Amino acid sequence: MHMRNKATLKNIANQLGISISTVSRALKDHPDIATSTKKKVRELADLMDFEPNAFAVYLRTNQSKVIGVIVPELSNFFYHSFVTSVEEEARKMGYSLIILQSANDPVVEEANLKLCKLNRVAGIFVALTPETKDLSPFDRINASGIPILFFDKVPDDNEYIKVCIADREVGKIAARAIIESKRKKVFALFGNANLSITRKRKQGLVDELKTLSPFIDITTLTVNNSHDAKKVTIDMLKSNQRAEVIFCMSDEILTGVIMAIHQSGFVIPSDVGLLAISNGFVPKLMNPEITYIETSGDQLGRRAMKTFGEVLEKGITKKLDIIESRLIKGGSL
Q1: Which of 47, 38, 37 is nearest to 11 (CA)?
Q2: Residues 174 and 32 in one domain
Q3: pTM, 2 dp
Q4: What is the mean pLDDT of residues 96-113?
Q5: What is the CATH number of the domain that holds 138?
């Protein structure tokens, strides 16, 4: 069976009886090459499905057109929408993505960093794992000339490029919604305490409640996943200390709490109110729809790409870019 040769500069040059350097310059629209020659070269290149060697282009220009994105998990609605919007915006700028999952494991996260470096990416977007304490691997990547942009779960240190939700303000918005609901006994569930995102949301909620309505009784607990959220909520609903409203820091916690409420035979909002911080997908599936403070993965992704453009154009090495949130009222409070 005849197999077509892979299109190369040499093949094109042999077919046209010209030098390889002439073919190369013609494809780059070099002014020294005659228009008629450029036309012949391009037509044959198209016919042979010629594609420039991306690695060779990188070596020549020192500029890759690939961005690495490291997320804790893609099954999370927030990160799924983030990656989708980053991919759309990246494509407009001529970039493609390598998408990697850390599974919330700092060892896997560091291995993913090395993989991005080996693939000579133009930049890396990272949402940190809860257990990431040592930022030196990121510093080394940065020093090698590959910019790191942290998003959502970011370092506390301001010496980095960070794009995140206004987490403390999100907690304050939640507090004001609870006060407006007139409910006095609050059960608030938060994620991993090692993350700045958790600390800021908790601080915003608790401080605002104490400031604006000091007589509200709030119990806060930390849970690691939806299963834990379900268990502690069932225990709370069975006790004689049943809360009037449950606050969920994330969609993962929200799904566990919803299961617990239904399994316990309670009705939202007549038996217990419900409020969450969410990307919006889960709250809209429920009847009544859950009242939530919007944290948009889509908006965060688009802002991240905009910030990355500034990194490329202006060479910035540190910036804090914050996305504001808003309350979306449903029927759960």
Answers
A1: 47
A2: no
A3: 0.76
A4: 95
A5: 3.40.50.2300
